[in-house]
Amino acid sequence: MISERAAFERALKEAALGRGDVEPNPLVGAVAVEDGRLVGVGHHADYGGAHAEVALLEALGGSLTGRTVFVTLEPCSHQGKTPPCADALVAAQPDRVVVLTEDPNPAVAGRGIARLRAAGIETVVSEDAELRQRERTLNAAYYVHRDRDRAWVIAKWAMTLDGKIASRTGDARWISSESSRREVHRLRAHVDAVMVGVGTALRDDPRLTPRDVELVRRPVRIVLDSRGRLTESARLFEDVERFPVWIATTERAPANWRRAMESRGATVIEEPARNGRVDLAAALVELRRRGCERVLLEGGAELFASGFEEELIDAVEVYVCPRLVGGREAPTPWPGSGRASMAEALTLEHLRWDHLENDQRLRAFVHSPRVGGGPFKRPAERA
Ligand SMILES: NC(=O)c1ccc[n+]([C@@H]2O[C@H](COP(=O)([O-])OP(=O)(O)OC[C@H]3O[C@@H](n4cnc5c(N)ncnc54)[C@H](OP(=O)(O)O)[C@@H]3O)[C@@H](O)[C@H]2O)c1
Questions:
Q1: Residue to substitute in 150, 153, 164, 165 for testing ligand 1 pocket (most ligand atoms within 8 angstroms of CB)
Q2: Are 59 and 42 in contact (CB under 8 A)?
């Protein structure tokens, strides 16, 4: 006979499997129990993809009759990137639903539980304080992100073993293996926006589209270009109908350049300036306002430097590749003055390392000693 505690312990374990792939969404796990036996598990595995309850339903062929569902977070009741899970549960008719924690998201906040009860499904909230606290800790990034106004930011780069993201002439094609580059396409298909500085747009002329992968999201491509340097011939414009191009600029950009960009299909967004350049923090607030929750920074060096200096990077995905290119002028992922001591260094937590051909990939969250943690800091604690 599986106890409520054991069922939730398993559901929390399932939830944790989504770490690094779902943020800023919450990590959620669900299990189904029938006659005291565990009969199915599910978790939210991908940002924009199926929620835990739906994954559980898929694992069980759609029916929950005669079963109790234990779910670590209240089922959603609103149409988000996927349909409401409360409705999916109602349709599958479980005997009982036990929820570990209520969702503080104002779009849910008790409505998921109310919807289940209104449909006649016995629904209770767990009173196990210790397990409820474990869920709060597991989803610290979610609870904090909810309270702040900017998008969640992942910085991704490939570097040589000597820490260079390009040679001294700016050549970066290619540092990483084909398998690593395929993974980058997969990552692009799981974000709302891919962002580069205009330096990278001019030097590499990238398309920044997800290619040869299933599209979970359809990312907008964004260039930070304070003075209007992007040209009409940029390859970014090739796919502008399918993957919109937004250019974040400042008042310094000339009106005729703005018109030229708009005639190529781009949306030009004027942002406040910080030190003469687009204010990255303000741009990330604006992006969230426009519906971009998850933003991938793809470089280059100057853009990463702003992100790290201003502590706007929540997570990193780094490919460390077996090459050495040397050179004092060759860019690193954080040029500029950096931090003065190791005590002030940003540190990484929840590390996940894996191999792709001969590359090593690290996925991790950024933690700042100054404010007590990147994704985990409270807005009030920010400088
Ligand atoms: N290995 C990798 O993963 C990787 C990835 C990407 C790029 N790269 C390499 O990186 C090199 C380009 O790097 P980069 O440092 O020259 O260019 P960058 O970071 O792509 O672009 C920097 C430019 O963006 C504009 N910008 C606007 N707002 C900004 C802000 N808030 N913070 C920073 N920049 C802002 C500035 O120009 P304005 O003032 O004119 O607006 C700035 O000079 C290339 O060699 C490329 O191959 C490597």
A1: 165
A2: yes
The full set of domains in the chain, from first to last, is 4-141 (3.40.140.10), 148-381 (3.40.430.10)
Can you tell me which atom of ligand 1 is nearest the CA of 173?
47
Mean pLDDT of 326-338: 96
Q: What is the pLDDT of residues 18-71, one digit of tens each?
A: 999 999 999 999 999 999 999 999 999 999 888 999 999 999 988 898 999 999
Q: Would you state the pLDDT for residue 380? A: 45
What is the per-residue pLDDT for 307? 97
Cα-Cα-Cα-Cα dihedral sign, residues 238, 331, 304, 364: positive
**Where does the pLDDT of residue 378 fall: very low under 50, low under 70, confident under 90, or very high at 90 and above?**
very low
Which residue's structure tokens are 């100057």?
Answer: 302
> For residue 165, which atom of ligand 1 is closest to its CA?
1
The residues, ordered by sequence, that sit 6+ positions from 96 with a Cβ below 8 Å of its Cβ are 68, 69, 121, 122, 123, 124
Burial bucket for residue 322 (CB in 10 Å: 0-12, 13-18, 19+): exposed
Q: State yes or no: cis peptide before 300, omega within 30 of 0.
A: yes
User: Residues near ligand 1 with C-beta < 6 Å?
Assistant: 157-158, 165-166, 170, 172, 175, 196-200, 203-204, 224-227, 229, 277-278, 280, 298-303, 306, 331
Can you give the pTM of this predicted structure?
A: 0.90
